[in-house]
Q: What sequence folds into this?
């Protein structure tokens, strides 16, 4: 299992998945760290208090809900334990790596797993090429097929063309259709917030009326 490819592949899935929120990401990274400590064993056991502390999750209900979501969405495999002396079992699916891409067995004095420099320099990039639109018309056609506003299609295309089709200017987009779906969701949320704000403003009476003024 290649540490770097696993982490990069996981981040790309997270970026393209609109279902995830920061709490899901924090929990996944906490589990990833525990997995790293066990030298990426097929199965490892977790303690709820320890994981909640690592992930900065303060609510038990939020913790269990996020575990369930990550399991249902195939980011982890979680088998809860009803034995107070035995931790719950977790398996971490491997993303974007193969069994032939193994980590070097070099370790630091504190047991941290390192990636071989030799392998990293010789290893060819096996990631699939980014799926990007050929032109603006392709984006517009896709938005029309989903009954999304054409104006948002143009905004989406212009925005990501300007920043080189990268999320946050750093992470390359692998599948632009997933990013387009996220764009529309955010646009809808912003529009709803504007409508709610406008509605609240209309309910406010800021004008002081002069009831002594003739009708």
A:
């Amino acid at each position: 299992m290649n540490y770097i490819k696993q982490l990069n592949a996981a981040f790309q899935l997270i970026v393209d998945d609109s279902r995830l929120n920061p709490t899901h990401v924090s929990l996944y990274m906490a589990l990833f760290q525990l997995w790293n400590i066990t030298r990426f064993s097929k199965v490892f056991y977790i303690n709820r208090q320890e994981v909640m502390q690592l992930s900065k999750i303060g609510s038990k209900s939020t913790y269990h809900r996020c575990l369930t979501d990550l399991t249902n969405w195939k980011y982890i495999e979680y088998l809860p334990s009803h034995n107070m002396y035995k931790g719950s079992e977790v398996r971490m699916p491997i993303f974007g790596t193969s069994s032939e891409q193994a980590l070097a067995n070099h370790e630091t004095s504190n047991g941290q797993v390192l990636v071989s420099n030799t392998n990293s320099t010789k290893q060819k990039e096996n990631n699939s090429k980014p799926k990007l639109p050929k032109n603006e018309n392709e984006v517009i056609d896709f938005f029309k097929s989903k009954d999304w506003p054409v104006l948002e299609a143009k905004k989406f295309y212009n925005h990501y063309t300007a920043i080189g089709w990268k999320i946050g200017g750093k992470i390359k987009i692998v599948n632009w259709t997933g990013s387009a779906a996220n764009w529309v969701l955010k646009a809808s949320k912003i529009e709803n917030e504007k409508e709610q704000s406008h509605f609240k403003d209309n309910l406010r009476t800021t004008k002081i009326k002069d009831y002594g003024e003739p009708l």
